[in-house]
């Protein structure tokens, strides 16, 4: 596998990570929104729509990102042409590509879709290449989490960027490196063959050996932890196995014990049709039937429809009951 700066966040978790050559829908959406962002910044509003049909939320996220990056540049030049944003980074086989360069501010911006993750090592690599290119000793990276409408700013000295990147690259090039199951396993090309994952999955029954005794698992905290870690890996395998079984059944093959079931899609009335009858039905009963509106949607509506001098009424926001869920803190095969 050739070393790309975009793989650094994953390699920082597992030095054996290998990018899946078939990107999933989330990665495809990320690339499409990057392209749309470049088009918007260049004043070509529709270019990326040729291969991707963005939703209203996508367009809103990209427009927010473009406004934010311009604001961060504070009127100075913003470079977004892909070929001008390539960054050669020492020690890497392939260059990186930032989404926007703000040279006068010694900064770059990178659009990220989906949830907030750690991109420190990737940003450090970009910063390292850009510091060399601009003869700078410090660099700023703005992570633009466009779905969450949040900016995370990271600042690097040359030494810090070099140390951060060097540590991950050294682990990646270590011939003795071992796979470390992590949050990125689901995106890894080796996810179905990785020995560390196989060992974890095998624990599901091993922890209760010699025979499967669930009470014994529940009564022992160490066994309980191992069992849950094994189930997390088995869950991934189950999803993949279900997809394969669905395909084969659709093609007319037999999978003993399994069949396809078709459920009727849900019935609904679209909001435009409801709007046509809202006077007769009454606003109150219709709104009550729709139920509560998420605070974020209400904030967005307020920002879009109210005059800017009218402050958002924070007192209207209710806070639901906090929920407690179980989350894996660190995958383990000990
Ligand atoms: S599947 Fe294996 S190699 Fe890939 S990230 Fe997970 S532990 Fe690492």
Helix content: 40-55%
What proportion strand?
5-15%
Count every beta strand, where a strand is a DSSP E run of 2 or more residues: 6
Major beta sheet, strand line-up: 3-4-5-6
Morphology:
globular
- Runs in which pLDDT lies below 50 for 5 or more consecutive residues are none
Number of domains: 2
Q: Main β-sheet: number of strands, strand sense, barrel status?
A: 4 strands, mixed
Helix and strand content put the structural class at alpha+beta
What is the CA–CA distance across the termini? 28 Å
Radius of gyration: 25 Å
Outline the secondary-structure elements:
Elements: H1 8-13, H2 25-41, H3 56-73, E1 86-87, E2 96-97, E3 100-102, E4 107-112, H4 120-134, E5 138-145, E6 150-157, H5 158-173, H6 195-206, H7 214-218, H8 221-250, H9 271-276, H10 278-281, H11 283-290, H12 295-305
The structure holds iron/sulfur cluster.
The site of iron/sulfur cluster has 15 residues, from helix 6.
List keywords for this structure.
single chain; alpha+beta; 2 domains; four-stranded mixed beta sheet; two-stranded antiparallel ribbon; globular; binds iron/sulfur cluster
Give an overview in words.
The protein is an alpha+beta fold and 334 residues long. Helices cover 44% and strands 9% of the residues. It has 2 domains: 5-173, no CATH class; 192-292 and 328-334, no CATH class. It contains 12 helices and 6 strands. Strand 3 (100-102) and strand 4 form a beta hairpin. Helix 6 (195-206) packs across helix 8 (221-250). The two termini are 28 Å apart. The model has no long low-confidence stretch (mean pLDDT 90). It binds iron/sulfur cluster. The site of iron/sulfur cluster has 15 residues, from helix 6. Iron/sulfur cluster is lined by residues 14, 16-17, 179-182, 184-185, 188, 190-191, 194, 196-197.
């Amino acid at each position: 596998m050739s070393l790309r700066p975009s793989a650094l966040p994953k390699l920082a978790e597992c030095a054996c990570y290998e990018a899946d050559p078939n990107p999933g829908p989330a990665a495809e959406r990320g690339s499409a929104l990057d392209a749309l962002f470049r088009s918007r910044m260049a004043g070509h509003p529709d270019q990326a729509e040729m291969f991707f049909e963005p939703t209203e939320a996508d367009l809103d996220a990209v427009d927010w990102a473009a406004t934010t990056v311009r604001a961060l540049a504070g009127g100075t030049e913003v470079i977004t042409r892909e070929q001008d944003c390539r960054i050669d980074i020492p020690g890497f086989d392939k260059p990186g590509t930032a989404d926007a360069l703000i040279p006068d501010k010694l900064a770059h911006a990178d659009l990220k879709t989906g949830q907030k993750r750690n991109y420190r090592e990737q940003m450090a690599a970009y910063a390292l290449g850009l510091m060399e290119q601009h003869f700078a000793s410090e660099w700023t990276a703005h992570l633009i989490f466009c779905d969450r409408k949040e900016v995370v700013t990271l600042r690097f000295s040359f030494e810090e960027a070099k140390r951060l990147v060097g540590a991950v690259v050294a682990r990646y090039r270590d011939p003795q490196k071992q796979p470390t199951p992590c949050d990125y396993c689901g995106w890894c090309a080796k996810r179905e063959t990785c020995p560390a994952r196989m060992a974890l999955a095998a624990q599901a029954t091993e922890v209760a050996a010699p025979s499967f005794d669930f009470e014994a698992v529940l009564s022992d905290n160490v066994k309980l932890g191992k069992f849950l870690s094994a189930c997390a890996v088995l869950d991934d395998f189950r999803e993949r196995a279900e997809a394969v079984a669905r395909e084969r059944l659709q093609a007319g093959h037999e999978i003993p014990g399994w069949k396809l079931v078709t459920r009727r899609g849900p019935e609904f009335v679209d909001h435009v049709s409801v709007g046509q009858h809202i006077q007769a039905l009454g606003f109150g009963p219709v709104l009550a039937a729709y139920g509560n509106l998420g605070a974020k949607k209400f904030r967005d509506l307020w920002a879009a429809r109210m005059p800017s001098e009218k402050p958002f009424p924070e007192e209207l926001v209710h806070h639901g009951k906090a929920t407690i869920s179980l989350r894996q803190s660190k995958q383990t095969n000990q």
